[in-house]
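Exercise 7. Predict the joint structure of the components listed below.
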Amino acid sequence: MKSLLARTPDELRADFAAAGHPGFRGAQVAHWLYARREREFAAMANLPARLRAELGAAWQTRALERVAVHEAADGTKKLVLATHDGARIESVLIPEGRRRTLCVSSQIGCSLDCSFCATGRMGLARNLRAEEIVDQALHASELLDASGERLTHVVFMGMGEPLLNLQNVVQAIRVLVHAEAFALSPKRITVSTAGVVPKLAELGRALPVRLAVSLHATRDALRDELVPLNRRFPIASLLEACAAYPIAKRDRLSFEYALLADVNDSEADARELAALALEARAKINLIPMNEHPGSPYRRPSEARIEAFLAVLAEAGVGATVRRSRGDDIFAACGQLGALSAGTSADAAGR
Ligand code: SAH
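Solution:
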């Protein structure tokens, strides 16, 4: 069966027209789905009964089933969603001021195996389909409806490497930005990558979304160890691809930098990072290590984090610390999939 969620409303018009229906029926179905959050064709009252039956036989409106919603003390919610083939994926809904940001997964597992990340342990099961990415946003919107809230931002920072599933990620983004679907501005969508250099240009050509690059180290020797992908695409090639990425004049790309105690958190590291950021006109997003069972990496002390930040500020580099959200429900960066990867909450002492 075809999935409605994999098609933009414009594509649905064309699909319906090609099937011999008036094109506007496609727009009506999209309106039911995205504006009314109605997934049952039977309830789409302004469609002829025959068409509803026909659509029900040909099209699916659900790519994922909601398995559980875990709420953290800080209001962060982790949605556990099941695919048709029985896999579990996770999305994280993060309230922050007036923002409602959804962190979506792009793959089941991940092939990159960054040394400090729990998801990498699972390896890659498969790419998510476009409809499975879109449905994460629809499930989150359904959850927000209960409190009269709306999704405002989407970040591709969940499980997986979005640039290794670029075609489906781009198609999902087309639906997220479509005025008759989620109507999110591309500026409110961020794709985060560990640095799949050849795919960066492709993303830039396809859609002007915001870019975040998981840097984590300023020298190849250390980055080779933390982000094994660096052995194929070393820092210099990554910075070159960043420089070529289309960014609006007043915008900045961001470098994510996981702060790992005694690994990359010295003041000398901070100075080198500041130099790279100035050169690339990037801002820095520091992510103090979210510890997880079986990982040798530790979070630096607050004093150490502050000292690192002070060096960046001194150099005139914009930097923020991503205070861990939802780590009590294993929803923090690099913790997704940690529990399904064979560890348990008890082992984490939580
Ligand atoms: N594969 C993409 C998308 C993942 S985004 C990428 O690498 O950018 C998730 C971010 O959290 C990445 O910057 C990742 O390196 C970081 N991260 C992973 N594990 C972490 C951990 N245990 N603590 C802090 N940050 C982590």
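Discussion. Residues 54 and 138 are 23 Å apart (CA to CA).
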